[in-house]
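Subject: sequence -> structure tokens, single chain

Hey, anyone have a minute? Need the predicted structure for the following. Not urgent.
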Amino acid sequence: AAPSKTPSASAAEPTAAPTLSDDSIAVRRAAGVLEALGLDVPTDATIQVRASDPATDGTGTVVSLDDREIAWDARGVLSSVFVPSSPGAVSRMGATEAGNRITQVAAALGVKLPAPDSLAYEDNVPDWTAQWSSAIDGIPAPGDGTKIMLTPDGRFLSYWHLESAAAPKPAHPLTEAQAKAKFPSCKNSSKGAGGKPETCTATLVWYRPMSVSPDQSLRLFWQVQHNWWDKNLGGNEATVVYVDAGTGETIDAAATS
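Reply:
Had a minute. Here:
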């Protein structure tokens, strides 16, 4: 059986829109999204309606009204809304007020969301960012999820939601021990190189290999991470590799530090 996305404290449940069958319907719905957010809809806007990025499934709909962009995925579910920020210095609201504003934005967009997994102020942007993680059958899907971003004073910036399809689970998935055994150098030790702690962890995740197209279903992998002290560099080092939970194939090894 195909994996299921079950409602949970970290699962976003967007409300599906009707299929966008022609440009006029798409433009009206895009204008409706902006109006629900309390944003102006330009009366003389340059309008563009196109299919979503062909690098993905290419069957969603993207509407651009001047510099505002609203998109739906192939199922007609709202997948992103973007408006440019206004220049100039603004005041910064507190975390409680930002959380209340996030709730208002979600309601305006017609998406059902629990409390966010995280709400943080990012100084480098700057903005308030609320994020919701995604899980399939209780297993994390790190590339999926939901994000809402606000200006420091609470004006809407963007909404993003991705909910990928998942391939069936392997009939006999590898165990954690079998996944770790693929990397004999990955180990746990209180006194590793340089007398520093060394760790080896393996976590089941839904993952899409970098070598496949973005429209491919997620597959079940063990994410194996090795952390150790590199005495030559004089700092902590880490590597991550993905082990296919069905075939045992190892892919996408990368340093993370």
